């Protein structure tokens, strides 16, 4: 198994290494994780929670505002390096959900996972989901923000439960040495 060795690698190299570790774990342990007595139901609930969050965000117009800010105005939160908020466990979760990783950064200067139409992964770190900036605070009524935050809570709680369960299973199967599964960071 590969280890994350460099202290300050460029963001693309770091996320590529994390994706390689997640892919290796998926190839070695993916079937076992998917046969786990608890995980399949959690995955189903997580998928539904993300879809519910997405519907609430779409209805509030947050996706449209983020698109305008990021794509049309060239600003936005999804800057290069943000991809490294994804842990190996979140990347592994994406693989368990059937997500294929992009091969290259599609939008220069932006997060590795941003494509022309938005994020290309399904399971995302908390920072990528609970992201209300000043622009959104000005555009989205407070009650709607509260509603979205409450819905996101279910999604993010499930994300935590799933990644904790995966960590526990992997540590049991491979030994208690997999500390870099939760590595995040900006460059």
Automatic annotation (TrEMBL):
Instruction: Output this protein's name.
Output: Uncharacterized protein
* Protein source organism: Thermosulfurimonas dismutans
